[in-house]
Hints:
The chain is mostly helical.
Amino acid sequence: xxxTPPKELPATAAAPAPSAAPRTPKAPQAxxxxxxxxxxxxxxxxxxxxxxxxxxxxxxxxxxxxxxxxRENSEFNSVVQRPAINFRASAHxxxxxxxxxxxxxxxxxxxxxxxxIARLARFYADSNQTLQAALSSGAPxxxxxxxxxxxxxxxxxRTVATTQQILALVHQGADRxxxxxxxxxxxxxxxxxxxxxxxxxxxxx
Length: 205
């Protein structure tokens, strides 16, 4: 009995070669992102520094301007305040002298009070020259000063005129009329005059 040849096994299909894995896109390099962030931070810091410098320079110039204006105002006020104080002294003493004119017991006392009034008037005039020189010097003058000075000048003119009328009445021997004018007009006018001067002094202080 002849031996049967072994059965041939069917050939198996060759396994397919593994395909290459798909390439993934490369992520941005970390160093590039870091440089961008660094540049932005540097630019922001530089901007803050520039803003700080600008604010500092502005503050310095503003402070210097305020200091200059305060110094100018202080110098102007001190120059104007002295004549104003002299005004008050002259007006006050003249109010007393004109009262004493009305009640003078004799010609000698009358002459003395008249001399006092004339001296105080010259003192006032000299102080007024100093005031007017300060106002016309070109220095900055607060806008409130001019109306205050004009108010003083207006009441001064009325008061001086009344004072001269009282002197004339006394010389005419009209003592009663002089006393009536003293109380009716001169007294309130001197009070208004002093009040006007005090307003200027208070403003300058």
